[in-house]
Amino acid sequence: MTSAQQIIEAMKVQPTINIEFEIRRRIDFIKNTLVNSGLKNLVLGISGGIDSSTLGKLAQLAINELNEFSDPDISDIEHCPYQFFAVRLPYATQADERDAQNSITFINPSVTLEINVKDSTDSLFNQVESQLAEYSQLTDSHFLKDFTKGNTKARMRMAAQYHIAGLVGGLVLGTDHSAENITGFFTKWGDGACDLIPLFGLNKRQIKQIAAHLGAPIAMVNKTPTADLECLDPGKTDETALGLTYEQIDDFLEGKPVDDFVTDKLVNTYLKTQHKRRPIPTIYD
Ligand SMILES: Nc1ncnc2c1ncn2[C@@H]1O[C@H](COP(=O)(O)OP(=O)(O)OC[C@H]2O[C@@H]([n+]3cccc(C(=O)O)c3)[C@H](O)[C@@H]2O)[C@@H](O)[C@H]1O
Ligand SMILES: Nc1ncnc2c1ncn2[C@@H]1O[C@H](COP(=O)(O)OP(=O)(O)OP(=O)(O)O)[C@@H](O)[C@H]1O
Ligand SMILES: [Mg+2]
C-alpha cells in the first residue's frame, strides 16, 4: 500500500528552495531538452494563470539564451533560430482576458498566436451528443455533460498546440507541477499531454515565489487558480473543486504537519488517479 511518505518522495518537493538555483536548472532543462530533440521551437498555451505565466517566462528566457542575445525586441528570424510560441486558447470570450494579456506582456514571447477553441469543441460535443441520443445512450445529467465538455476544451487546446508544434517543428510544454500532479488535477490527454513538464518537483507556493522573482506583477502571482473549464460554473476555483487548499497540499508536499483528513484525502485521490501518471497498460504489466 502506498504511504503518505512514498507519495511525498514521488512528488520530489523540497521543504525549502533556492529560487535562483531552481530557475537556472529548469531553464537549462528546457534548453537541453529542446536542443536534444533537434527541434527549434517551444509551444505553450497561456491562460493568464500563474502556472502558464511562470513557465512561459522560463521558456522565453531559455529561448533568449539559445539565441544568444539579450534584446528580446529583435525579431529577425535570421538572428532568432529558436522561438517560443505563446498560444492564447480562449473558449469564446475569456472573462479574464485582461489577465491573459498581462501574462503575454510579462512573458514577451517570440510569437503570440490566438486560436479560439469554441467552434471545434461545440462541433465535437454536438455530434457526440446526437449519436449517443440516437442510441439512447445520452446522460440526462447537465452537470456531467458540462463537466465532460470542459475536459474536451482542454483536449482541443492540446490538439491546437500539437498542430502548431507539428507545423513549426516544436515541443509542447506542459504546466503540470507537484501540487496538481498529486491529485491528478488535469485532463488526461488534455493539458496533461505534452513533451516536457519543467515545473514538476515544485508546489504552488514555490511557483509563486519563482514568478515573483522573475518580476511577475503581484496580482498575477496572487491570482486565484482556476481551470475555468465548466460553462455552468465559470471560474470555479481549484480549491473548491478539490475540497482542499493549496496551503494544505503544499504543506503536505513539504512534509509539514497537516490534519489527518488532508492526508487521507490526498492519499485517496493520489491512488484513484494513478492511471494518469502511469504508462498505458499492456498485457505485460
Ligand atoms: N482506473 C482507471 N484506469 C485507467 N483509466 C481510467 C481509470 N479511471 C478513469 N480512467 C480514464 O480517465 C478518464 C477520466 O479522466 P479525465 O478525462 O482527465 O477526467 P477527470 O479526471 O474526471 O476530470 C479532470 C479533472 O481535472 C481538472 N482539470 C482539468 C484540466 C485542467 C485543470 C487545471 O487545473 O487547470 C484541471 C478538471 O476540472 C477535472 O476536475 C475516463 O474517462 C477514463 O477514460
Ligand atoms: N484559456 C486558455 N488559453 C490558453 N491556455 C490555456 C487556457 N486554459 C488552460 N490553458 C493551458 O492549460 C494549462 C493548465 O491550466 P491551469 O489552470 O492548471 O494553469 P494556469 O491557468 O496557468 O494556472 P492556475 O492553475 O493558477 O490557474 C495552462 O497552464 C495553459 O497552458
Ligand atoms: Mg488556470
From TrEMBL:
The gene is nadE. Mg(2+) binds at D51, E180. GO terms for molecular function: lyase activity; NAD+ synthase activity. Catalyzes the ATP-dependent amidation of deamido-NAD to form NAD. Uses ammonia as a nitrogen source. ATP binds at G45, I46, S47, G48, G49, I50, D51, S52, T175, K204, T226. The keyword Ligase applies. The lineage of its organism: Bacteria, Pseudomonadati, Pseudomonadota, Gammaproteobacteria, Oceanospirillales. Its EC number is 6.3.1.5. Deamido-NAD(+) binds at R155, K188, D195, H275, K276. This is NH(3)-dependent NAD(+) synthetase.
